[in-house]
Write a structure and sequence with these properties.
Helix content: 25-40%
Oligomer: single chain
Bound molecules: (2S,4R)-4-hydroxy-1,1-dimethylpyrrolidinium-2-carboxylate, magnesium ion
Strand order of the largest sheet: 7-8-9-10-11-12-13-14
CATH class of the largest domain: Alpha Beta
Number of domains: 2
Number of helices: 11
Shape: globular
Radius of gyration: 20 Å
Strand content: 15-25%
CATH topology of the largest domain: TIM Barrel
Structural class: alpha/beta
Largest sheet: 8 strands, parallel
CATH architecture of the largest domain: Alpha-Beta Barrel
């Protein structure tokens, strides 16, 4: 089975309801890129990448499509049977840009799964469960709104809540965490995510002022060097998110003991194949992690769910999907939705997510 054509589509994803606020950026609309890989025997495989705007990380939608323009033509005629061979071919065509290659990795896994008659989770080592826990992210807001939102989601069955802080007065962050804890208590595990906004001093102060609340402190500071300065000075365990820019960064963080957990973005690591390597590194040291992505619709969500299904349940912190902030579904017949705090693992061959093309805008075709 060989690649005959690659279509690149885009989907505009306006944020439903309030804008999505984080410490350093607020997003109102996201620009998602989908790739549709067509083979010489008429199969279609889908992948997606959707940076969380141009500021969350050094990734952006135009960059993803430029990378696909650089890579796409060089993949035409390539054999699907070897994901490692295709990854190597992509690296021969373009250095880096894992967040763009991730969409192709996902589409190629979708096709290989269809060819072999197995779900993508099987290609990633095999599912251990048939549903995975979701988690909800409370965006930066008032302590009252944060507490109300967290309590409502726990009542819906979520077992983990991430509270976003940062980019404002320390006292407001401290108050928000205490109000959420009062509202939720031990009914859900808490993560508090500053999205890189804190200085080391700020993080140490914040940790002291919230020592009575159990949570994992996610990516308080910007760089791995700053995170290294925090080791041994905090009462809360620390999770790395944005600084894990690739699997090598994960390996460094683990080998230098810089993280107690991780918040992985599957496309940032280069796609499900590369993210599975990070999964295995974490398993060696019993380090919990999420299987998320920055943003995206059902195709990104399916990739995260397939990977999450292969994680040892004791190490899976949960899966975040953007569906709550997206109007409608790419595939109305097969919506990816959280039910009672969980996401079903697709069982059909491949990814189990094929968008309705009429909902997408064609951008380019290669081959
Ligand atoms: C909560 N998320 C998984 C969704 C947004 O992309 C940000 C991200 C995070 O953990 O920072
Ligand atoms: Mg995070």
């Amino acid at each position: 089975m060989k690649i005959e054509r690659i279509h690149v589509h885009r989907a505009s994803l306006p944020v439903v309801g309030e804008p999505y606020r984080m410490s350093h950026t607020t997003v109102h609309e996201l620009d998602s890129t989908l790739v549709e890989v067509v083979t010489d025997d008429g199969r279609h495989g889908w992948g997606e990448t959707c940076p969380l705007g141009p500021v969350y990380q050094p990734h952006h939608a135009l960059g993803a499509r430029a990378a696909l323009e650089q890579i796409g033509p060089g993949l035409i005629g390539a054999e699907i049977a070897s994901p490692r061979g295709l990854a190597r071919r992509m690296d021969e065509l373009l250095a880096g840009h894992g967040y763009a290659k991730a969409a192709l990795d996902t589409a190629l896994l979708d096709l290989l799964g269809q060819e072999l008659g197995v779900p993508v989770s099987t290609l990633l080592g095999g599912a251990l469960v048939d549903r995975v826990p979701a988690y909800y992210s409370v965006t930066v807001g008032s302590p009252e709104d944060g507490a109300r939102s967290a309590a409502a989601k726990v009542a819906e069955g979520y077992t983990r809540v991430q509270v976003k802080i940062g980019g404002r007065d320390l006292a407001r962050d401290v108050e928000t965490v205490h109000r959420v804890w009062e509202a939720v208590g031990h009914r859900a595990r808490l993560a508090v995510d500053a999205n890189r906004a804190m200085t080391v001093a700020h993080a140490v102060q914040f940790d002291r002022l919230t020592a009575d609340v159990p949570f994992v402190l996610e990516q308080p500071c910007n760089t791995l060097g700053e995170m290294a300065l925090l080791r041994g000075r905090l009462t809360h365990p620390v999770a790395l998110d944005e600084t894990t820019e690739d699997v090598d960064a994960v390996l460094r963080a683990i080998s230098e003991g810089l993280a107690d957990a991780f918040s992985f973005k599957v496309t940032r690591l280069g796609g499900p194949t590369r993210a599975a390597q990070a999964r295995d590194l974490c398993a060696l040291r019993s380090l919990p992690h999420t299987c998320d992505d920055a943003w995206g619709g059902a195709v990104v969500a399916a990739a995260c769910i397939h990977l999450a299904a292969t994680v040892e349940p004791r190490l899976l912190e949960g899966v975040w999907i953007a569906q709550d902030y997206i109007e409608g579904h790419y595939d109305p017949g097969r919506p990816v939705v959280v039910e009672d705090g969980y996401l079903e693992v697709p069982q059909e061959p491949g990814l189990g997510a094929a968008p309705d093309r009429t909902l997408l805008t064609p951008v380019a075709t290669y081959g």
